[in-house]
Amino acid sequence: MKVKMKRVDEIIERYKGEEGVLIQLLLDIQSEFNWIPHGVIARISEKMRIPTSQIYRIASFYKAMSLNPVGRHIIHVCLGTACQVRGAPKILDRVEENLKIKEGSTTADMRFSLRRVNCLGCCAMGPVVVVDGNYHGKITPAMVEDILEKYE
Amino acid sequence: MRVLKLEIDGKAVEVEAEKGKTILEAAKSIGIDIPTLCYHPALEPFGACRLCSVEIEKRGRKKIVTACNYPVEDGLAVNTKSPEIIEIRKMLLELLLARCPEEGKIQRLAHEHGVVKPRFKLEDERCILCGLCTRVCEELVGVSAINVINRGVERAIGTPYMELSDDCIGCGSCALVCPTEAIKREKNIYPTTAEDTRAIEDRFLEGERDAELGVYTDLIAGKSSLDGQDGGIVSSLLISGIKNNLFDAALVVHRKDGYGYKAEAVVVEDVAGIRRAQGTKYLRVPMMSKLEEALKAGKRRIAVVGTPCEVRAVRKIQQQRDLEREFPGVEITLLGLFCFESFDYEGLKERTKREFGVDLDKADKTQITKGKYIVTVDGEDYSCDVRAFEDVVSEGCPYCDDFVSRLADISIGSVGSTDGYSTVIVRSEVGKKLLDATEFVQAEVTKKEIVKLVRFKKKRADKNFAVIMDGLAT
Ligand SMILES: Cc1cc2nc3c(=O)[nH]c(=O)nc-3n(C[C@H](O)[C@H](O)[C@H](O)COP(=O)(O)OP(=O)(O)OC[C@H]3O[C@@H](n4cnc5c(N)ncnc54)[C@H](O)[C@@H]3O)c2cc1C
Ligand code: SF4
Ligand code: SF4
Ligand code: FES
Ligand code: FES
Questions:
Q1: CB within 8 Å of chain B, chain A residues 112-131
Q2: Which residue's CA is the closest to the ligand 2 atom numbered 4?
Q3: B432 pLDDT more than 60
Q4: Does A63 contact chain B (CB < 8 Å)?
Q5: CA gap B230, B417 in Å, rounded
């Protein structure tokens, strides 16, 4: 995951020399990269002359900011009891295999983040996979690839 | 001058409006004690613990506020001991005791308020999130190495990413203010208390303990064949250490490629690398993350050259962590420099330009000696009183009380010997062995010149620590 530092510098440039702009600056970084990458905090610290701990405090406090990479698309695989019984673990296996990542992480190309959830409240549709809020019900391992392909 | 009149527990108080006093301070001025946990008179109020809650009555309306950050108002009636307030305090202490059942200070406060056994599930926390450590580090010391991080139940005191701090100077101020054991257990910063210093000396050093110079066996002046900052002793020691297989690599500070005077810490393994680092850069350079990186990359026998704060940091992690288990075969040789203070790069550059019209980035050499700052550009020396640079001193230096790198294996500086020589203090077997393996011309040292600076630096730090200590007593 290579972060474009040039882009980071451009964003920092917008705020340089101003006071009390840290939150806004971090939000801009967040919306550019979908997370706040590790090296970026050090970069902001150096350019804005703010100690890293103060930047990290904010970045780790606000819900709108993420210190872990989040892909462009977020996949939730339901592992609630009903979905489990209907074969959800196999679905999760297939997604993990397909994306070559484990649940809880993000693909290197930042396309997908994969998470598990417990019961989405639509057990009758199980097993359920939700991508970016779109529900895909009654799915089988064989359907996984087709579903993922829809999200670029 | 406008005077505000109020009443605390039925006693009348008058406060000058301009003073901006809080209820807590007003109460104190008439001898009324309000319990506090996150308050310190020299720090911005934080309002975190709520133990100082009091009831106020204003135009017939009652309200509960925190006394430590509520400014006095005219006509206010304050009750610090109403049954409701007592209940609130008891509840807060009960929660705190459940969070930190092992903490002496919390136990004492709880017992004083009649709380013995909390009804809540006991946890095993140490930190009460009072934020005294983060505020002292940010507001007084100025480096802000730690902060309150994360949110909700994950909230904690820590360094960014819970990694080793590159900012902490190990001054120990946070340990002075922390009401619990928490800060002492924090492994990513290096607060070094007087007891820590003793323990480190006992474990790593040998020789007589001198009140000013610390533990040492030999004090000499030396000049090597290298033209370093002073006698080139540091670089010669490093070269002979590597040649004689006393260590395999050295963590040194060199100017960054393409950045002029700006410096960075690097691991070098040969003469060329060591020589490139010759000469003092009067800056504080992030070092601990580089050291950890080197250890993780498999380097084991490393010499570290650092200022007193860096030496402290290395010793503190040796003391607190089991490095031998984490990195089997680890051997760290510590070469400490003398240091009165360092400077902020941007500030030093800007001042150098303003004072002499020259560019610091083009300097062949910088020197601080006998109260003078000297910068050499294109063979020309420019100098002025170093006090002209007082306001670009690195944050934290005035809270550092060590001039001679007391905890190093061997300390090197310029004060105490004649021009072209380095002063050397040997503090351990490791340091002795390294010096014995190195060729140099020896000369005499004037100890009292060193002692003068040791005292001067300590006095400055002690004055700052006194402000912290006095606040604890109130
Ligand atoms: C910030 C600073 C302030 C100092 N203040 C004083 C003082 O007030 N009085 C005094 O007597 N001596 C002071 N010294 C020490 C002195 O300047 C020389 O470093 C010392 O005498 C060794 O000289 P040398 O010729 O033996 O070293 P050299 O052979 O020239 O080697 C110098 C070594 O210093 C290291 N170094 C250079 N800059 C830094 C840095 N910023 N941080 C960590 N390591 C660095 C390099 O890695 C190199 O190995 C200070 C040093 C520093 C870094
Ligand atoms: S570590 Fe100590 S001083 Fe810091 S917040 Fe926790 S209890 Fe307070
Ligand atoms: S030791 Fe000093 S610099 Fe380090 S965290 Fe504590 S107060 Fe800050
Ligand atoms: S168990 Fe999956 S939706 Fe309820
Ligand atoms: S002392 Fe006032 S809130 Fe902690």
A1: none
A2: B133
A3: yes
A4: yes
A5: 9
Note the residue count of chain B: 474
Q: Whole-structure pTM over 0.95, yes or no? A: no
Backbone Cα Rg of chain A: 19
* Closest residue CA from atom 3 of ligand 2: B178
What residue spans define the domains of chain B? Answer: 3-81, 132-191, 209-342+393-465
Q: Could you report the per-residue pLDDT of B116-160, keeping only the tens digit for each? A: 889 999 999 999 999 999 999 999 999 999 999 999 889 999 999
| Residue B23 confidence (pLDDT) above 70 | yes
Domains detected in chain A? 5-61 (no CATH), 73-149 (3.40.30.10)
Provide the pLDDT for residue B444.
94
Question: At A1, is the pLDDT very low, low, confident or very high (cuts 50, 70, 90)?
Answer: low
Q: Judging by beta carbons within 10 Å of its beta carbon (0-12, 13-18, 19+), is residue A34 exposed, middle or buried?
A: middle
DSSP B184-215: HH-TTS----HHHHHHHHHHH--SEEETTTEE
Ligand 1 nearest atom to the CA of residue B367, by list position: 17
**Maximum CA pair distance of chain A?**
58
Instruction: Give me the DSSP letters along B412-466.
Output: EESTTS-TT-EEEEE-SHHHHHHHHTS--EEE---HHHHHHHHHHHHHHHHHHHH
The answer regarding whether domain B3-81 maps to CATH 3.10.20.740 reads: yes
The CATH code of domain B132-191 reads 3.30.70.20
B342 lines ligand 1 (CB under 6 A): yes
CA distances from residue B83 to B11, B87, B88, B366, B461 in whole angstroms, order as listed: 18, 6, 9, 66, 45
Residues B151-202 pLDDT 10s: 988 999 999 999 999 999 999 999 999 999 999 999 999 999 999 999 999 9
Residues of chain B whose beta carbon is less than 8 angstroms from a beta carbon of chain A are: 134, 138, 143-151, 159-161, 165-167, 346
Quick: pLDDT tens for B226-260: 988 999 999 999 999 999 999 999 999 999 988 89
Q: Which value does ipTM take for this structure?
A: 0.90
Question: Cα B402 to chain center, whole Å?
Answer: 11
Q: Residue B137 carries which DSSP code?
A: I
Instruction: Answer yes or no: are the C-beta atoms of A56 and B149 closer than 8 Å.
Output: yes
Q: Do A52 and B148 touch (CB under 8 A)?
A: no
